[in-house]
Specification:
single chain; alpha+beta; two-stranded antiparallel ribbon; 4 helices; 28% helix; binds zinc ion
């Protein structure tokens, strides 16, 4: 499954470059170029996929408070961590790789933020769907004694791309780096 790992490493580099470009690109044209480079990793035919970096370009001459805050946040961004990949045998996509990544913010500790689903297309591997950790239960699927009603107890919510339904049978699990957050870590270690 080397291909998927290589694809994800390239995606993570392009993702970091695009997030930095919001505040660091010298011109809007160069920002657009970075966003286009990132879009090339997505199978847009599956439906729009929203990422947190899909903000508008902020001109370097902008001295507003918002821009200043954004530039400070930028100092805290780093390439996203790839924790693990679970490979599934999906009824529609066939080999479907679920790649667990964090937000790419340099907070203390690491935790799941998104699952990026990668499948083979006629143009090579592409991200076909995105799930994001449920903000209500922070990925645990539980609220006290009850299942979280926001995510139906799964801990995840669809954030664009194909509707996947049941993911199918797991065919392989590749672990790269354990998250430090206990909820994420329990999932990381479960199989
Ligand atoms: Zn939830």
């Amino acid at each position: 499954m080397e291909t998927i790992t290589t694809f994800m490493r390239a995606f993570i580099a392009a993702d970091h470059a695009a997030r930095r470009a919001v505040y660091c690109a010298p011109s809007e044209e160069e920002f657009d170029e970075k966003v286009r480079a990132l879009d090339a990793f997505l199978d847009e035919g599956q439906g729009a996929m929203e990422f947190p970096y899909a903000w508008d370009f902020v001109d370097p001459s902008d001295q507003s408070d918002g821009a200043a805050t954004g530039r400070r946040m930028l100092a805290a961004t780093r390439p996203r961590t790839l924790f693990l990949i679970r490979h599934y045998d999906h009824r529609e996509f066939g080999a479907l790789a679920r790649c667990y990544v964090d937000s790419g913010m340099a907070w203390p500790g690491t935790r799941y933020m998104e699952s990026l689903f990668v499948a083979a297309t006629t143009e090579g591997p592409r991200i076909v769907a995105v799930w994001r950790v449920c903000v209500t239960c922070r990925g645990s699927g539980r609220l006290g004694d009850d299942a979280c009603s926001t995510c139906g107890g799964t801990g995840w919510e669809p954030a664009g791309g194909a509707t996947l339904g049941e993911l199918g049978r797991i065919t392989e699990v590749e672990r790269f780096e354990a998250p430090t957050d206990p909820t994420s870590r329990a999932d990381y270690e479960k199989d």
